[in-house]
Queue: 2 jobs
Job 1
Amino acid sequence: GAGVSQSPSNKVTEKGKDVELRCDPISGHTALYWYRQSLGQGLEFLIYFQGNSAPDKSGLPSDRFSAERTGGSVSTLTIQRTQQEDSAVYLCASSQDSGGTDTQYFGPGTRLTVL
Amino acid sequence: SQQGEEDPQALSIQEGENATMNCSYKTSINNLQWYRQNSGRGLVHLILIRSNEREKHSGRLRVTLDTSKKSSSLLITASRAADTASYFCASILNSGYSTLTFGKGTMLLVSP
């Protein structure tokens, strides 16, 4: 079946603009994760959705970042008033459930460049 | 704070040689996973080892876990140029959270 997909693959924006990044998880996966990877760094957890539960937003770096997951499927990560330090690859992953033992499957990422 | 720390940061070997990468972590884990990343984009899951396991194999990959030392190693045998990538260890903490905590990765270069 199809894997996790993300769009756009690349996004260049000007400082101060808002951006929306989209993630389509694997069908049937109840858990969805957003991570951020800055150049040469490991992945930084941003936010986690599990079913209909309230999301774990503990990784969001500021209130400019928000995410939604509609209908338990597609998720959108929104960054308002982008800053140059927001430039990174944003990766989405999904897994079958949140038991902590399931493999997370990653999308190809969205490379965000803030000028 | 960084949960996982890979060592070395970079590794350069010839095709056919074995590559060993190490990962150390700080707090108790539920399981530890190794991922591969090509060209700074999507990650591919390689192998998962649970906290009650000591060794696991998958094809040319061998992973060990020493919970007393809070460390894991990934061995790639008979490496190929196509193995060139960054390798990350990631852990699920015992704190109840299901999110993966990643290290900064080891960049492996396999020369033909």
Job 2
Amino acid sequence: AQSVAQPEDQVNVAEGNPLTVKCTYSVSGNPYLFWYVQYPNRGLQFLLKYITGDNLVKGSYGFEAEFNKSQTSFHLKKPSALVSDSALYFCAVSYASGGSYIPTFGRGTSLIVHP
Amino acid sequence: GAGVSQSPSNKVTEKGKDVELRCDPISGHTALYWYRQSLGQGLEFLIYFQGNSAPDKSGLPSDRFSAERTGGSVSTLTIQRTQQEDSAVYLCASNSPDSRYGYTFGSGTRLTVV
């Protein structure tokens, strides 16, 4: 079985400050890891993914995430937050199981960036 | 089309009625997923289609829920005898192995059972 934990329901940060949204995962094989963002009344938008290779993955809108195998973490980061980054962020994990890749999503973390 | 299209965007139905939700995936994407997002909850996996293989229905919450995918493209999620606890946003996603963008989601159908 695979699972994802996003330990923070909400993260508050001031505009211009660095932000981190935490994600840890559990999977029996090599993980595929994803971050998605959801704005109000919208579907999920892809930010970035880790499949293999460099542990530091760069994605859309200046976001990046670091895959840490020993800590089973994939935290989302951005050096300087914008008010427009305020949204709901989801971490997801999937892996190859009998030829299928069904992603499991975390409960989401609400990011609030204050002006 | 350029993205995953879901219809209707909003659906209000009376308890006990059947509803059909439609998903039109990105052309050429072989994998299609249905998820349910309830208020304050994460995404709950419902069903997964991959090409012509038998679907993975392990996430369907009850036998009132069913889905089909015709011709490897459009999918319909059917909920029979709707209950108030079925109220949620139903999201569809599609994917192909060589996609740069992982899973592409539609904007969802907001279902309200009154």
